[in-house]
DNA sequence: TGATAATGATTACAGATCAGAACGATTGTC
DNA sequence: GACAATCGTTCTGATCTGTAATCATTATCA
């Protein structure tokens, strides 16, 4: 009889999920040195890309309920990385901005991102890296994923120290 | 002056994390129709690939503490998908196996996986798909990722219903 | 104008989830 | 034959989570 393997071969979808979680984990470890979690880094990036948005909008993009966004932003504000500015025309909303200190940290974050990218793609030549980048972008586009936001930002917890 | 974008361009690492979370989310939605969560599906696959292992080993591969594995396996056993068999030579350990019902469900799971793969890679031609598969496998190998296990299995929670 | 509904930020709260310690049963060591 | 180690399990305190209520402000519209 022939032994048919029930797990034939991991496909693209499985490898994406596996590698994605792996990459996210490594990145989380790395930026822990900057005292940042992935969702925090995500917010900083979002504020750099589009400053002055309301908390509700940002919470929506991050995929978390507004109630949980409050203490989340509180800590970043307490550390002087972001700023809540009252809107004169509509005094209900806060417009969130990056402080200078926040921008400085974002620069460090960019460096960390480069090092992370380099280490993760160690197995690939430069042109393979570019080819992979193109293929992934095509999928991301077609799947309707917006740049700068990803679903992994929903949770705060990922902070394991093995 | 030149406006330098603080988020230059998402790299491979970011796209992997983003697409990985996206793919995992879609898959979770899909197998919810079979009343399965990703970690449950993962265990079924692991048992098919290597039957008879102990709970501690499996918990380790899944990335969860043994204490949490117990109720996790309990439900699958209650549903008649897996079986705990006592080891005669060492009566401390349980050897976990798939039941027939479990194998049947695994077949449905494989079908779901195929459909998932197809929908996710809709943007790619067949040869692009293969090229991508090759590149991802190279990275996974070099990063020391074992087939059939991924870090996203650590948590049970992901069951949001938007 | 003025009452009512809608919106943003926040707080309150009740329930789920988590990891590690503690526990009995069994086995290896010497 | 005592003692340490291992496996499965239960217990427990702390953390995290989403929903609903609250307060201030703004829009709607008769």
Multimeric status of the protein: homodimer
Helix percentage range of chain A:
55-70%
Largest interface (CB within 8 Å) is between:
A-B, 60 and 61 residues
Predict the CATH topology of chain A: Arc Repressor Mutant, subunit A
**DSSP strand count of chain A:** 2
How would you describe the shape of chain A? Answer: globular
Pfam family, one (chains A, B): MarR_2
GO biological process, one term (chains A, B): response to stress
InterPro entries (chains A, B): HTH_MarR-typ (IPR000835), MarR/SlyA-like (IPR039422), WH-like_DNA-bd_sf (IPR036388), WH_DNA-bd_sf (IPR036390)
GO molecular function (chains A, B): DNA-binding transcription factor activity
Q: What structural keywords apply?
A:
Arc Repressor Mutant, subunit A; 162 residues; globular; mainly alpha; homodimer; two-stranded antiparallel ribbon; disordered N terminus; 6 helices; DNA-binding
């Amino acid at each position: 009889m022939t032994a048919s393997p029930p797990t034939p071969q991991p496909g693209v979808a499985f490898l994406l999920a596996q590698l994605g979680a792996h990459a996210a984990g490594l990145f989380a470890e790395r930026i822990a040195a900057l005292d940042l979690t992935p969702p925090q880094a995500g917010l900083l990036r979002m504020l750099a890309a589009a400053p002055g948005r309301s908390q509700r909008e940002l919470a929506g993009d991050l995929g978390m309920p507004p109630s949980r966004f409050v203490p989340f932003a509180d800590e970043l504000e307490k550390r002087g990385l972001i700023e809540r500015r009252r809107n004169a025309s509509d005094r209900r909303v806060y417009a969130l901005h990056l402080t200078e200190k926040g921008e400085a940290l974002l620069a460090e974050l960019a460096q960390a991102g480069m090092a992370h990218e380099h280490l993760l793609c160690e197995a690939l030549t430069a042109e393979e890296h570019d080819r992979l980048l193109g293929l992934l972008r095509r999928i991301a586009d077609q799947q309707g994923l917006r740049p700068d936001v990803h679903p992994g930002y929903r949770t705060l917890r990922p902070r394991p120290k093995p």
